[in-house]
């Protein structure tokens, strides 16, 4: 199991997050989720080059949905 990332947030970064609108924060989370899916698809493609794109996408989303459990 991978270790959790617990780097402290720089005060300048924290101030930026505080000033950010809820919509912008939500967009950042969505962007990070999409990037995670793309990275997972790339990893799965290495192990399963014969899988179609739809299967890779499905398995990537499924694995990320279970990541916190």
Description:
The chain has 69 residues and is mainly α. 70% of the residues lie in helices and 0% in strands. It is elongated. The mean pLDDT is 90.
Could you write a compact summary of the structure shown?
This protein has 69 residues and is mainly α.
What keyword list fits this structure?
single chain; 69 residues; mainly alpha; 3 helices; 70% helix; 0% strand
Largest sheet features? none
H/E series: HHH
Mean pLDDT: 90
How far apart the termini lie comes to 12 Å
Determine Rg (CA atoms, Å): 16 Å
Question: Helix count, per DSSP?
Answer: 3
- For the secondary structure, the number of strands is 0
Helix content: 55-70%
Question: Percent of residues in beta strands?
Answer: under 5%
Gross morphology is: elongated
Structural class: mainly alpha
Flag low-confidence runs: none
């Amino acid at each position: 199991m991978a270790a959790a990332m617990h780097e402290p947030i720089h005060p300048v970064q924290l101030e930026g997050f505080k000033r950010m609108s809820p919509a912008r924060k939500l967009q950042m989370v969505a962007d990070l989720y999409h990037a995670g899916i793309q990275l997972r698809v790339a990893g799965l493609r290495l192990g399963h080059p014969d899988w179609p794109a739809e299967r890779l996408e499905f398995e990537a989303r499924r694995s990320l949905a279970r990541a916190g459990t």
